[in-house]
Amino acid sequence: MNAASADRPPAVAFASSAAADGPPHVTTPVPYDGILLASFGGPEGQDDVIPFLRNVTRGRGIPDERLEEVAHHYRHFGGVSPINAQNRRLKAAIEVELERRGIDLPVYWGNRNWAPYLDEAVREAANAGDTTLIAVATSAYSSFSSCRQYREDFARVLEQTELAGTVTIDKVRQFFDHPGFIEPFRTGVREAIAGLLADGVSGERIQVLFSTHSVPMDDARRSGPRDREWGDGGAYEAQHLAVARVVMEHVAEQIPDAAAVGSQLVYQSRSGPPSQPWLEPDVCDVIAGLPERGIEAVVIVPLGFVSDHMEVLWDLDTEAMEAAAEAGLRAVRTPTPGVDPAYVAGLVDLVVERLSGAPRETRPHATELGPWFDVCRPGCCENIRAGFKPAAAGVAP
């Protein structure tokens, strides 16, 4: 930081000195002393379900009887979301990869909506003397709920713990098109299509559905930076479409007969009132209409998700598979990245590029949209219902 910049307040609150002036890509090495693994969290027993859902919907005034309508998804699985167990495995896998590379960084894990909470993780880091943190959120795409809400939670936690003057939190870039994230999807789709072709299903009779979490249209339009026209689906939809395209291009290169396979982006897990427009079409609605298009088999790809948490187990493995059976379709659901070695290595790569201050042109990315920003741009991913709140790792609007 030069003398002139030292005389003015930073553009990015709660940030390391290298990121404080708000460059899109930070090319100054930062000596981080800890990694903050940030996730959504989930209940781990029947008694946790309603308190967890109260946390998820805090501030909306939703009564418990309405929460119970959603709770049956969790109760179907004994009140246990798999997400915490998955994050324990992911944390352990990241630690193994760090050790393999000789990188001495502790990993602190905290959730937005259930224990262990983010404030507990940040306090643990501060008590250990680890105050310059780089955050890895378990969400690859740009939108309010998948990026900015995490950044607002970082700011809230630092203020509430009174560690804002002691701890800084930067965040790795959104990694939707990092090869480590995409590789497990390429493998899963390639193997699924190869299996169907080997069983005698012709390529034109196979449809690949890339599924992601639906969000309100107002939020979708505001996803990503405002210096570009993204269309009604915003950067959120554009990123998914770009990743789906490179996955299908890879499969067609590897399997010539797969060139005839069709694909489209679909949505799931809508939770808003019918009067509120959300991104469409719904995965189950699309599946129901596939037979009239001559489709015999469907490959369901959880493109918007990093692990097999509740939206995958219920919305895809339960509801979408039931819809496929009712439509008389063969159906294959491909894996999420989980703890795939390529994905874990990719997450560590994202940390390393900030440790080293890697130039933008050296950063791996698989689509024309990347590499994404280290520091979110002004006005990025606004929540139209609540407006802008203080957020770490981004330039204030």
Structural summary, described in words:
With 397 residues, this protein is of the alpha/beta class. The chain has twelve helices and eight strands. The protein folds into two domains: 3-176 and 340-362, Rossmann fold, CATH 3.40.50.1400; 179-333, Rossmann fold, CATH 3.40.50.1400. 39% of the residues lie in helices and 11% in strands. The strands form two sheets. A four-stranded parallel beta sheet has the order 2-1-3-4, sandwiched between helices. Strands 6-5-7-8 form a four-stranded parallel beta sheet, with helices on both faces. α6 links the parallel β3 and β4.
Task: Outline the fold blueprint.
Blueprint: H1 3-6, E1 34-39, H2 49-56, H3 64-75, H4 83-100, E2 107-111, H5 118-127, E3 132-137, H6 144-160, E4 168-171, H7 179-198, E5 206-213, H8 217-221, H9 234-254, E6 262-268, H10 283-289, E7 297-301, H11 310-326, E8 330-333, H12 341-356
Parallel strand pairs: 1-2, 1-3, 3-4, 5-6, 5-7, 7-8
